[in-house]
Amino acid sequence: MGKKFLVFDYDGTLLNSIPILARYIYKKVSPFVKTDIREIEKLIGFPIHVIAYELAKDEDKAKTLIKLIDLKEAFEEYKKASLYWDAKIAIPQLHKNYRLAILTASPRYFVESTLGEYKKYFDIIDDRKEKSDLLDKIDAIAYVGDHIVDIEIGKKYNIPTYLIERPHNLHIKYKPKLKNLLQLVKILN
């Protein structure tokens, strides 16, 4: 029998992109809706149409907000993000005993551009988070994320799910909550 999969969300879990994405979205939408960066940080992880609707509270205004988000411009900002320190240490260690996968809402080329030398550790990068059938197809031992969406995905597939504590998600009450990914290494190895 082959190695089991360990599945990660990407933004906010492995990649410190939440502040960068929140600043970019804030800069684009703040002239049109009353919001702040903290509110936007809490929404990152949902698809862009959900973020736009939550900020606008109106379907027509949400469509306008979506048009303001330029994917090429967002990508230039996104490339400034880097992997969290604990991800850089944990990924190679976890790869020794598990196959690794990423399940994300970010476009695949966003993920591949920021993984750098760590890309070699991942067997699968699936950018269809909300519509993916990945977890039906693989033998996953656990799912790790930073958002309520990740918790819901883990529950939907009855997979042990861990919430990684990051500055943008301290408001989420969930157990088990990992202080860092090195705790996951200790739990699983």
TrEMBL record:
<dbReference type="InterPro" id="IPR023214">
    <property type="entry name" value="HAD_sf"/>
</dbReference>
<dbReference type="InterPro" id="IPR036412">
    <property type="entry name" value="HAD-like_sf"/>
</dbReference>
<dbReference type="Pfam" id="PF13419">
    <property type="entry name" value="HAD_2"/>
</dbReference>
<dbReference type="InterPro" id="IPR023198">
    <property type="entry name" value="PGP-like_dom2"/>
</dbReference>
<protein>
    <submittedName>
        <fullName>NEQ340</fullName>
    </submittedName>
</protein>
<dbReference type="InterPro" id="IPR041492">
    <property type="entry name" value="HAD_2"/>
</dbReference>
